[in-house]
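yo, Transposable element Tc3 transposase is done. seq:
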Amino acid sequence: RRMWFQQDGAPAHRSRAVTQYLNNRFPNRWIGMGSRVQEWPPRSLDLTPLDFYFWGYIRDIVYSQKLTTVENMKNRIRQACRNINVGVLEKVRDDFHHRLELCIQVNGQVFEH
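structure:
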């Protein structure tokens, strides 16, 4: 299967260089501001797996115990990322699919999840 790329509308992600790279690397297979296929809805944290799942998951693990050094924090982040299992990723994928279906049902308008 051919992979698609999704990105948010952060200013650093909208530069001409980034857009050209994505057009070359993922021709007609990327979603985001400046995409030829589909622009990503602005401020759509519920539709971005890194926002609705990943960052909170990592934060909870990293800060579950007091941090003593920056290196300690980096090590916890690395360990938390290594310990994410396939079952969790499958659940995130399924939840993401459900959120997309909700967005389609309301024609891209605001919805509660």
